[in-house]
Specification:
elongated, 428 residues, alpha+beta, six-stranded mixed β-sheet, coiled coil, two-stranded antiparallel sheet
């Protein structure tokens, strides 16, 4: 079989002895160049196998090697095992269906200084790594184009095969080319490794800058929080002072009521004196006294309560306005979220209008009436048919949700096809 009919592939073993990942050798070279990463192997040393497979899904060569991955899933930048050359110079191995394979592993390594980077496959029955590879190749998960075996163009009797020890005679030009290719590959990998290191250093510097920026933002936030806490404490103190003032007003009111009761007693004495003169005059005086007392008490109580309410309202409003103005001056914005309108930034002058009716405010931002917005919101939260069936129950069929209030039409968007058609017949 010609070399063009051989396929190069790399397979990765998992700790339990199964094949976890398969790829063609071209993909493996892309992995070594740092263009892709394998996060599933992050910070691990993985057992891998380089194989040469023919078009009948039979293994011809195998090199069992280790590959280290960093914490980001990138392979070791210094890894430089010549897998293809080792597969060509490897010794004989077991017959996996197409004659003895070429096998390179720790105990059978054609290049001694790479021995420490190789591993020996397990041949234990029930845990045979070579059998696992053979079955995985036969499964053809890589999608190799299978070719049927062709009749040999030359009969085996006419073939003259040199002895195995002469298969790889020293060829000066070939050795020179291989050394040159290996040196160029080594130089390329060194440059790639240097670029990777530079990128890692750059990323580390950016990470440090980001951490510093986060620290500055956190310090600024702490300062703002401390300032706001100070303002809250000041407001609390102001409220306590207002409460003390209210207590004082209540005490004054009690004194005024006591004085009025004294006046009432005085008037009562007058009434009793007037009773000695005439019953009619006494009744008139009593009525005048009661009416005058009632009016004065009511006026005094109303004035005191109004004054207390006014001072409390002014203090609370003044405190709240000061807090809002200080927050706005510090760059704090008031952001609310409403479906259909998204996140809304509420200006300071619109806070009262928003608090009075949040839904009306959101509807105005969606350019629809409040009623339409409320009906759309009910549909958005539960897109079900609102039509009524003959038994008086709601239809409740699932509908396609209308995402924006402006596209919502009552009686159409919230009705199924059956009730929508019934509504059209009713309208017609």
């Amino acid at each position: 079989m010609s070399k063009a009919q051989l396929i190069e592939a790399v397979m990765f073993f998992t700790p339990d002895g199964s094949i976890g990942k398969q790829m063609f050798y071209a993909e493996f070279e892309t992995l070594l160049d740092g263009l892709v990463k394998m996060t599933s192997f992050a910070d691990e040393q993985v057992r891998a196998v380089y194989m040469v497979v023919n078009a009948r899904l039979q293994i011809r060569s195998a090199v069992f090697f280790y590959l280290d991955f960093d914490e980001e899933g990138a392979p070791d930048s210094g890894w430089n095992i010549p897998l293809q050359q080792m597969a060509e110079r490897a010794g004989r191995g077991p017959d996996l269906g197409a004659g003895p394979i070429r096998l390179a592993c720790r105990s059978q390594c054609p290049v001694s200084w790479h021995q420490m980077h190789l591993w020996d496959p397990s041949l234990v029955p029930g845990n045979n790594d070579l059998a696992t590879l053979r079955e995985t190749v036969r499964a053809n998960s890589l999608g190799i184009l299978i070719q049927e075996e062709e009749a040999p163009s030359v009969t085996p009797e006419r073939l003259q095969v040199a002895s195995e020890d002469q298969w790889y005679a020293v060829d000066a030009s070939r050795d020179l080319a291989e050394k040159l290719a290996e040196r160029l590959s080594h130089d390329y990998r060194q440059k790639a490794a240097q670029l990777v290191r530079q990128q890692r250093e750059r990323l580390a510097a950016l990470a440090r800058e980001q951490q510093a920026e986060l620290a500055r933002a956190a310090a600024h936030g702490d300062a703002q929080r401390a300032e706001l806490q100070g303002q809250i404490q000041a407001l609390r103190q102001s409220l306590r002072q207002q409460e003390g003032l209210n207590q004082s007003l209540k005490a004054q009111l009690a004194e005024q009521l006591a004085a009025q009761l004294g006046e009432r007693e005085e008037l009562a004495v007058r009434v009793r004196a007037a009773e000695r003169h005439a019953r009619t005059e006494r009744e008139i005086l009593r009525e005048q006294f009661d009416e005058e007392l009632r009016v004065r008490i009511q006026a005094t109580q109303a004035a005191a309560e109004e004054q207390a309410r006014r001072r409390e309202g002014e203090a609370a409003q003044r405190g709240a306005s000061q807090v809002l103005e200080r927050l706005a001056a510090q760059g704090v914005v008031f952001v609310v979220f409403h479906p259909g309108a998204g996140h809304l930034t509420v200006p300071l002058q619109d806070v009262d209008r928003y608090l009075a009716s949040p839904l009306a405010y959101a509807a105005s931002k969606c350019f629809v009436p409040e009623g339409q917005y409320r009906q759309w919101l009910e549909h958005y939260q539960r897109p079900r048919c609102a039509g009524m069936q003959a038994d008086g129950q709601r239809c409740d069929v699932a509908l396609e949700r209308v995402e924006t209030p402006g596209r919502f039409v009552v009686g159409e968007s919230n009705c199924c096809m059956l009730h929508k058609a019934a509504r059209l017949r009713t309208v017609g």
